[in-house]
Design goal:
It contains 6 helices and no strands. It has 123 residues and is an all-alpha fold. It has one domain. Helix 1 runs antiparallel to helix 5, helix 1 runs parallel beside helix 6 and helix 5 packs antiparallel against helix 6. The chain starts with 7 loop residues before the first helix and ends with a helix.
């Protein structure tokens, strides 16, 4: 029974649940700081041809095709509703925490589960 909680599935589920609990207050939050500039008012995100536009863009200071692709898709799904963006971000945090734990576990780092679990708490 002692080693059962250390199984990958049980550990991952626990990390995901704890991450959801930690970030639960953020789900009902609004957009913050530069979200309007980066997502809501971004001319590369809003137009339907945006994916092509930023896939071949040669201008601009920052080139983040994966990030812009996700924002483009999220804009199509949720528009100006911040809840969808927050839920997607929380799920990405949970997945990242599980991946960190699995990597640390594979490397046989003592306290690997704590490292994965504490990751969402530090962000």
């Amino acid at each position: 029974m002692k080693n059962e909680w250390r199984s990958p599935a049980a550990g991952a589920i626990l990390i995901i649940l704890l991450t959801l609990v930690v970030y639960l207050p953020a789900i009902r939050g609004s957009f913050v700081v530069d979200d309007y500039m980066l997502i809501i008012d971004n001319p590369m995100v809003r137009p339907i041809e945006g994916i092509h536009g930023f896939s071949v863009a040669t201008t601009g200071d920052n080139y983040y095709p994966l990030t812009w692709s996700v924002w483009w898709l999220e804009w199509r799904l949720w528009g100006k509703n911040p809840m969808g963006y927050h839920v997607a971000n929380i799920l990405l945090h949970a997945a990242n925490a599980v991946l960190v734990w699995l990597i640390l576990r594979e490397l046989k780092i003592p306290g690997a589960w704590g490292g994965g679990w504490c990751l969402p708490c530090t962000q």
